[in-house]
């Protein structure tokens, strides 16, 4: 935590982690927007870190704030180089060891261990009837929550159809084990390491050389967190990256006229952690979709509300954050709000269900598959 102390000491409270500069002054931090206190911000997380170091507060007192952060990384634009969400994660790792964990997030980790996904048991696979190639070098991984809702199942099946249309030979798993994200979010570092190593051994045993996922969260976890604990894993791509490669080669063709008007919600994981903002846009435009941008997009995106495990630990905060995004999407004039991640689809879709005037929330594969030539 020495680095964190340094970061706190250099924080001049410039508010760059809370709001964009003039002329727009757009809010950036979902917890500051919800609670309105400086404690609930990147700057507040730095102060919390110092309070722990200097023993002004206890771990038990710090843990609720650390678990409230959505880990969206919007505050990482700090001009002093601070990364407040990493401090929240460091505190979570200590809190997990001492049992100061929100019950909802603890339950999600227990479900991952017991059932292979954070939501317990589901009523069937998404991939029944999907044509795949056992032993193929490419694994299409839809994400462990895909069987749980009709819209998630549909998205997974869309991607499989698109990959097939693009001439990609791929295998799917009979049951998709969670990537382990809830363990990372909860601070369960040792559990995550073992989980990741077991998953990688399984993929190696199946001959997987490239893992292609349509889940932005899995994309980051497999792409960034796994190599730290299991360095000999497969190459990792978001499905939109592979499809764009195929479209550029002419292997995937779309109708180019009369597409919908959509605005793309960049997930925090894709846009800020993985730098993936161009491929989904280029694909949608190749499919004739007219794109309009929201004020906060790409690296300045606003969290869907599901980040940081808040979907499990604080569903009200998740929903309020999603509603703020929907308002912005509504202001863009788009017919559809398109997402690249099952968790964004759930968070924003649930908010849209409470707001009949909002744009239709869709997964980008919904827009792509209907435009196949
Ligand atoms: S952006 Fe950095 S320096 Fe500015 S208030 Fe936030 S943490 Fe402090
Ligand atoms: S990671 Fe997101 S929610 Fe957490 S303090 Fe930074 S901007 Fe706020």
Layout of strands and helices, then pairs:
Layout: H1 2-9, H2 30-35, H3 42-53, H4 59-68, H5 84-98, H6 103-115, E1 138-141, H7 150-165, E2 170-171, H8 181-186, H9 189-205, E3 210-213, H10 216-229, E4 235-238, H11 239-248, E5 261-264, H12 268-273, H13 278-286, E6 290-291, H14 310-313, H15 315-332, E7 336-339, H16 342-353, E8 360-363, H17 364-369
Parallel strand pairs: 1-2, 1-3, 3-4, 5-6, 5-7, 7-8
Helix pairs in contact: 1-3, 3-4, 3-5, 4-5, 11-13, 15-16
One iron/sulfur cluster binds next to helix 3.
Descriptive overview:
This protein is α/β, with parallel strands linked by helices and 373 residues long. It folds into 3 domains: 2-100, Alpha-helical ferredoxin (Fumarate Reductase Iron-sulfur Protein, Chain B, domain 2, Orthogonal Bundle); 138-245, Rossmann fold, CATH 3.40.50; 254-369, Rossmann fold, CATH 3.40.50. It is 49% helix and 8% strand. The protein has 17 helices and 8 strands. The strands form 2 sheets. It has a 4-stranded parallel sheet with strand order 2-1-3-4. It has a 4-stranded parallel sheet with strand order 6-5-7-8, with helices on both faces. α10 (216-229) links the parallel β3 (210-213) and β4. α11 crosses α13 (278-286) and α15 (315-332) packs across α16. The model has no long low-confidence stretch (mean pLDDT 94). The site of one iron/sulfur cluster has 13 residues, from α3.
Summarize the model shown:
With 373 residues, this protein is α/β, with parallel strands linked by helices. The protein has helices at residues 2-9, 30-35, 42-53, 59-68, 84-98, 103-115, 150-165, 181-186, 189-205, 216-229, 239-248, 268-273, 278-286, 310-313, 315-332, 342-353, 364-369; strands spanning 138-141, 170-171, 210-213, 235-238, 261-264, 290-291, 336-339, 360-363.
């Amino acid at each position: 935590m020495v680095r964190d102390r340094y970061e706190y000491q250099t924080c001049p409270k410039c508010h760059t982690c809370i709001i964009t500069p003039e002329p727009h002054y757009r809010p950036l931090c979902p917890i500051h927007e919800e609670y309105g206190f400086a404690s609930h911000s990147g700057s507040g997380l730095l102060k919390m870190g110092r309070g722990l170091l200097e023993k002004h507060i206890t771990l038990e007192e710090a843990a609720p704030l650390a678990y409230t952060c959505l880990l969206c990384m919007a505050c990482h634009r700090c001009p002093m180089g601070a990364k407040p969400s990493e401090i929240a994660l460091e505190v979570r790792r200590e809190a997990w060891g001492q049992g100061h964990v929100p019950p909802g997030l603890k339950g999600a980790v227990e479900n991952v261990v017991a059932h292979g996904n954070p939501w317990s048991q589901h009523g069937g696979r998404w991939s029944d009837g999907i044509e795949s190639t056992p032993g193929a070098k490419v694994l299409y991984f839809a994400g462990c929550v895909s069987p749980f809702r009709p819209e998630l199942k549909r998205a997974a099946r869309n991607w499989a159809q698109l990959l097939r249309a693009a001439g990609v030979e791929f295998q799917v798993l009979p049951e998709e084990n969670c990537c382990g994200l809830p363990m990372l979010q909860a601070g369960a570092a040792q559990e995550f390491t073992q989980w990741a190593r077991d998953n990688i051994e399984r993929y190696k045993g199946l001959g997987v050389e490239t893992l292609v996922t349509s889940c932005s969260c899995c994309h980051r976890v497999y792409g960034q967190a796994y190599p730290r604990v299991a360095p000999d894993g497969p190459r990792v791509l978001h499905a939109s990256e592979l499809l764009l490669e195929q479209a550029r080669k002419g292997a995937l063709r779309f109708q180019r006229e009369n597409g919908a008007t959509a605005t793309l919600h960049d997930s925090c994981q894709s846009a800020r952690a993985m730098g993936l903002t161009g491929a989904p846009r280029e694909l949608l435009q190749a499919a004739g979709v007219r794109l309009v941008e929201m004020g906060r997009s790409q690296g300045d995106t606003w969290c869907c509300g599901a980040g940081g495990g808040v979907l499990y630990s604080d569903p009200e905060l998740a929903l309020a954050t999603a509603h703020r995004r929907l308002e912005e999407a509504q202001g863009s004039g788009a017919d559809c709000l398109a997402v690249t991640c099952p968790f964004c689809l759930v968070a924003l879709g649930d908010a849209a269900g409470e707001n009949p005037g909002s744009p239709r929330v869709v997964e980008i594969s919904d827009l792509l598959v209907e435009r196949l030539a």
